[in-house]
Amino acid sequence: MMKCKDAVKLIPQFLEDDLDNRDLAGFLSHVDRCPDCKEELTIQFLVQEGMLRLEVGDTFNLSSELGHLLSDARRRLRFRRSLVFLSYILEIAVAVLSVACIFLAIAL
Ligand SMILES: [Zn+2]
């Protein structure tokens, strides 16, 4: 379990979408369980996004925007993890195929 100190440090990177899979997973599960860090995230998100929107004149629904941000991040994490998984499978498939080719070459 990630410490609050570490989770808070990751907030700016999270908002920039600049975390690797491991940090992102730890960060998301921490924010899920820790109201303090969720609040800190909300504040930093408000400062970063809210100010931008106010300049443009958009209406801004903080809690729903933050909810979107978090569910997007979870979706991206799942997607990237499945890509990692897929690349393992491909590597194994390639390894099996090359072994099969070597056997064939010997047998023929
Ligand atoms: Zn925390």
Rg, rounded, reads 21 Å
* Oligomeric form: single chain
How many separate domains make up the residues?
1
Instruction: Tell me the structural class.
Output: mainly alpha
Overview of the structural elements:
The protein has one domain. The mean pLDDT is 90. The longest helix has 46 residues, at 62-107. It is mainly α and 108 residues long. 86% of the residues lie in helices and 0% in strands. The protein starts with a helix and ends with a helix. Residues 4, 7, 30, 34, 36-37 line the site of zinc ion.
Features:
108 residues; mainly alpha; 4 helices; elongated; binds zinc ion
List the helices and strands and how they pair.
Blueprint: H1 4-15, H2 21-33, H3 35-56, H4 62-107
Helix pairs in contact: 1-2, 1-3, 2-3, 2-4
